[in-house]
Specification:
about 350 residues; alpha/beta; Alpha-Beta Plaits; 2 domains; 8-stranded parallel barrel; 4-stranded antiparallel β-sheet; 10 helices; 15 strands; about 20% strand; elongated; binds phosphoenolpyruvate; binds manganese (II) ion
């Protein structure tokens, strides 16, 4: 349920409601709405109406939440959330672009790509130091050494860093190096991991599971918000369908749907969904047209030599061209994409 406080309710009144909720066995989560405070109350206890909270001083009304996810729901927070990563805003009018290699392979590779994606206009550098690979014999990532390289790339370029964590024990370590912690598709329902990334207090990029419904995805996000970490970015990265000519199927409808059901920003990953760089630009355009707040793109300066996901990685030049094509769509919708230098060396996508 949510407890809507009267406009201008005093701190002591808000705290009074929160402590009453605590006594009743609920966890209160304070949310600053437009002009008033709303308290989201979650817990295992079944809510019986009237709750008695209605009569507390400063309370305007008590409203049940019908969705199975609570804190994530638009019913709790009607305005769209903006996730702040330093001065960078995700979920505002600017489409945020995150780009970089699938995996951190070595310092030279990472720094080369970092400088190029920065020049093209990206704000966030991606790159896995811990890689969730389908085969135990595939490259698993450079782990701590990879995190240190990401740190160096951040220092050199000023880009924010998004990188994946695979298990709860490594959350603190990854949180020390990342500006945004990524939870990958294969871990979307790893509930102890979700709780632990929530506890780091860092912004979290939560990918949709390969076979997860939108509701399951939002329930996964709920685990993070339940730890009082509201800094969650949802990422649609394609789901498994009967179609085999692409790696996954980018579920465009999930983008506006997740934004309608939830207040969290939603970004799209056109590379893991399609499995080919050829579809990255049209899918990015479609995602932005559907309301995506950002894009996560794999870029490699030598895709044919990439240790991971080369076929779906764009060269920096192609990436630069992609941003130009997406910016036209963004502008038509009253949004913008930051465009840096034109790296395009000729030739089309
Ligand atoms: C990734 O972004 O590197 C990744 C492994 O993606 P996903 O979890 O979507 O497969
Ligand atoms: Mn990848």
């Amino acid at each position: 349920m949510i407890i809507v406080m009267q406009p201008g309710a005093e701190k002591v009144q808000i705290e009074g409601v929160e402590s009453k909720l605590g006594e009743m066995g609920f966890s209160p989560h304070r949310i600053q709405g437009v002009g008033r405070v709303v308290i989201g109350a979650v817990g295992e206890r079944k809510v019986v109406f009237p709750t008695g909270l209605e009569v507390l001083s400063g309370v305007e009304k008590v409203v049940p939440i019908s969705a199975p996810y609570k804190l994530v729901s638009r019913e709790v927070k009607g305005t769209s959330s903006v996730v702040n990563v330093g001065e960078l805003e995700i979920g505002g009018s600017q489409i945020v672009v995150m780009a970089g290699p699938c995996a951190v392979e070595n310092e030279e590779q990472l720094l080369t790509i970092a400088h190029q994606v920065k020049a093209a206009g990206a704000q966030v550098l991606r790159g896995g130091a811990f890689k969730p690979r389908s085969s135990p014999y595939s490259f698993q990532g450079l782990e701590l050494e990879g995190l240190k390289m990401l740190d160096r790339a951040r220092l050199e370029t000023g880009l924010k860093i998004v990188t994946e964590v695979l298990n709860p024990q490594e959350c603190e370590l990854v949180a020390d190096y990342a500006d945004i912690i990524q939870v990958g598709a294969r871990n979307m329902q790893n509930f102890s991991l979700l709780r632990e990334v929530g506890r780091t207090g860092k912004p979290v990029l939560l990918k949709r599971g390969l076979a997860a419904t939108v509701e399951e995805w939002l329930m996964a996000a709920e685990y993070i918000l339940a730890e009082d970490n509201f800094q969650v970015i949802l990422c649609e990265r394609g789901i498994r369908t009967f179609e085999t000519s692409t790696r996954s199927t980018l579920d465009i409808s999930a983008i506006p749907l997740a934004k309608e059901l939830s207040h969290l920003p939603v970004i799209a990953d056109p590379c893991h969904s399609s499995g080919t760089w050829r579809l990255a630009a049209p899918l990015s355009q479609a995602a932005v047209a559907a309301g995506a707040d950002g894009l996560l793109i794999e870029v490699h300066h030598k895709p044919s030599e990439a240790l991971c996901d080369g076929p779906q990685s764009l060269t920096p030049e192609k990436f630069s061209r992609l941003l130009n094509s997406v910016s036209l769509i963004a502008e038509a919708l009253g949004r913008s994409v930051y465009i840096g230098e034109d790296l395009e060396a000729g030739g089309g996508l």
